[in-house]
Design a protein that fits this description.
By secondary structure, the chain is mainly alpha-helical. The protein is 74% helix and 2% strand. It contains 18 helices and two strands. Helix 2 packs across helix 17.
């Protein structure tokens, strides 16, 4: 099956958005200039930059990335199915390899890494690979309803003494922040791939991302099965309808999120129902972004404007990992340690500069290579030791 341009561009958009969020967060290293020493106008600008970037991309960029992970599984599974192969078990090996790439990335990213979450939750795709569309959809909806949060909420209503399990995430991140500030290379790298990864996974559970990620994988799988990323009049109408519905749902869900999550009266309500509304409003806005992007991509002007994202998306794994390496060098004590001198605005400008440099590298690299360095390595290791059968002949 040939590559679908809009998918590469959309994936590039997601990785770009992740970069911008991570840049203003200093790659989850909360060290910033003293606001008292900043001009008032810069403080106002910084707050505006933070609010806009987080409103647009935080919790949505990763969701797009997750949805496309499920879509890519469909492409890989279908391609092998056409050759008479079941890609499922090879995919499990591929997930194990992804955990290895997650470890590389996490070494430079103190808060742990979403790739490890994908590697674990990806098992859901293996489980449902032969299910009917209806069964996958029902399962996806169940996951996206955030049943764990509802269970905790109902339990607290039945028993007022009920408390949420203490996962110790706050204490873990405090320890991560401490060794990061020390600038000790051995502590930094070892701590990131152990404690940092553990904290990240437990945070994902508490934040509702574990089941939402699985649900997004299922939605991506269904989009692939229904060929919704292909250009057609029916698909254009589908994405316009999706845009309208998602926009209409986002507004009330956002209001509920503000009332219950941001201004929740008790910790239990905030951490259960509040988390649910937060995840739902992010889910709705994610589809505002996706449907808008796919619909606009049908126009020549938008395709030309986003042409660099196609190259960026083709090398998403390489770009994602290299972002962390570059960010660690720029902001952390193990590198230039510019974090104390960079507010949100300057940090975003640094992220934009990294993005432009990465796009130029991708354009140059793909002139002579079909895949990025990490993509090529992942592909080769995926098929390590595999024998292909074609018309009765075995080939390697």
């Amino acid at each position: 099956m040939p590559r679908i341009e809009v998918v590469d561009a959309l994936r590039g958009f997601a990785v770009m958005a992740i970069l911008f969020v991570h840049s203003i967060e200093h790659f989850i290293f909360p060290v910033y200039p003293d606001p008292a020493a900043m001009p008032a106008w810069l403080h106002v600008l910084d707050q505006g930059v933070f609010d806009v970037i987080f409103a647009l991309f935080a919790g949505k960029s990763y969701a797009i990335f997750a949805l496309l992970f499920g879509f890519t599984f469909h492409i890989q599974y279908t391609n092998q199915q056409l050759k008479g192969n079941d890609f499922g078990y090879r995919f499990l090996w591929r997930l194990l390899l992804l955990a290895g790439f997650a470890t590389i990335n996490a070494a430079f990213f103190p808060a742990g890494d979403v790739l490890l979450l994908f590697a674990i939750v990806g098992i859901f795709l293996f489980i449902v690979r032969k299910w009917s569309d209806k069964a996958v959809l029902v399962f996806a909806v169940l996951l996206l309803l955030q049943p764990i949060e509802w269970f905790h909420y109902i339990a607290s209503r039945v028993n007022p003494a009920y408390t949420l399990p203490d996962l110790g995430v706050g204490a873990m991140y405090n320890e991560v922040a401490q060794y990061t500030k020390e600038g000790n290379y051995a502590l930094f790298f070892l701590g990131n791939i152990t404690l940092g990864q553990k904290a990240s996974l437990l945070w994902a559970i508490g934040a509702g991302r574990f089941l939402q990620t699985a649900g997004l994988f299922m939605i991506g799988l269904l989009i692939g099965r229904k060929h919704l990323f292909l250009t057609s009049e029916n698909n254009n109408r589908f994405w316009i309808k999706t845009l309208i519905i998602a926009a209409l749902l986002f507004s009330p869900l956002y209001v509920l999120k503000v009332q219950v999550y941001d201004n929740g009266s008790t910790g239990m309500i905030k951490q259960t129902v509040g988390v649910v509304f937060d995840m739902w409003q992010k889910f709705a806005f994610t589809f505002v972004l996706i449907s808008s992007f796919v619909w606009l991509y049908q126009t020549d002007m938008f395709r030309k404007l986003t042409s660099g994202l196609r190259y960026y998306g083709k090398m998403s794994l390489t770009n994602y990992i290299s972002q962390s390496i570059i960010g660690a060098f720029i902001f952390f004590p193990i590198g230039l340690y510019l974090a104390p001198y960079c507010g949100y605005t300057i940090s975003l400008l640094i992220g934009i500069a990294i993005f432009i440099a990465q796009v130029r590298f991708c354009e140059w690299w793909l002139q002579t290579h079909k895949q990025g360095p990490f993509e090529s390595l992942w592909h080769k290791l995926t098929w390590l030791g595999a024998n292909r059968t074609v018309t009765g002949r075995r080939i390697t």
